[in-house]
TrEMBL record:
Ranges where the SET domain occurs: 38-152
Keyword Ion transport: no
UniProt xrefs under PANTHER family: PLAG1 LIKE ZINC FINGER 1 (PTHR16515:SF23), PR DOMAIN ZINC FINGER PROTEIN (PTHR16515)
UniProt source species: Hemiprocne comata
Taxonomic lineage from the root: Eukaryota, Metazoa, Chordata, Craniata, Vertebrata
A GO MF term: zinc ion binding
UniProt name for this protein: PRD15 protein
GO biological process: regulation of gene expression
Gene Ontology cellular-component annotations: nucleus
Domain (C2H2-type): residue spans on this chain: 186-212
Length: 212
């Protein structure tokens, strides 16, 4: 204690405790990369104060807006798995690698984007280009709408999964029930393949254009 000149274990009984000043909390790399027109919201708090986050629009985002590339560590084995996020892989130097994001300091904001459970809530499509993964909007996104992503048709084949997903399980942010209507497939005029969404058909048709 500088007031009484004594070295004490614990606080000074005469002059009281020290006033403790804490360092400012610095946001992680991933949070600092968030574009100004997007925001993170806490959707749920789990055990150990684990936050379930979602990315939401603060203003209208136009269709065909591209985000990326996705930042992560190349790994032959996935060390961090979250069932609410997409598993992403890329082809580099002839090898297939996971884009791993074990913590917020080795990724960017795209690691917070949750996967879409159905076509109605999908706003983004994920695809690979030149060894990088990008997300692109498949429709205009209104303010306060969460950005949710699923694989593009070609990327789904690369990931050995379906381009038309059927995941309707409960989520941390349940949606009100929506009346289901029969899905009218979109048909490719070149090869006759059918797709449940026009965005998937557009992605597929790029293959034919490239071949021509």
């Amino acid at each position: 204690c500088e007031d009484c000149g004594k070295s004490l274990v614990g606080e000074c009984k005469l002059h009281g405790p020290l006033i403790r000043a804490k360092d400012r909390v610095i946001p992680s790399r991933a949070r600092l990369t968030l574009p100004h027109y997007l925001t993170l919201r806490v959707l749920e708090l789990r055990a150990g104060n684990e936050q379930i986050l979602g990315v939401f629009a603060k203003k209208v985002i136009q269709k065909r807006t591209q985000f990326g590339p996705y930042v992560g560590q190349l790994s032959t084995k996935l060390t961090c798995y979250d069932e609410s996020r997409l598993v992403l892989q890329v082809l580099k130097d002839g090898g297939k690698y996971f884009l791993d994001t074990p913590n917020e300091d080795c990724g960017n904001w795209m690691m917070f984007v949750r996967l879409a459970r159905n076509q109605e809530e999908q706003t983004l499509v994920a695809y690979q280009h030149c060894g990088e993964v990008y997300f692109t909007t498949v429709k205009p996104i209104e303010p306060h709408t969460e950005l949710k992503v699923w694989y593009a048709a070609d990327y789904a084949k690369f990931m050995e999964t379906s381009a038309v997903f059927i995941k309707e399980e409960s989520d941390v942010c349940p949606l009100p029930p929506v009346a289901k209507e029969p899905i009218v497939p979109w048909i490719c005029s070149s090869c006759g393949s059918t797709f449940a969404a026009f965005a998937l058909l557009e992605s597929h048709q790029c293959i034919h254009k490239d071949r021509v």
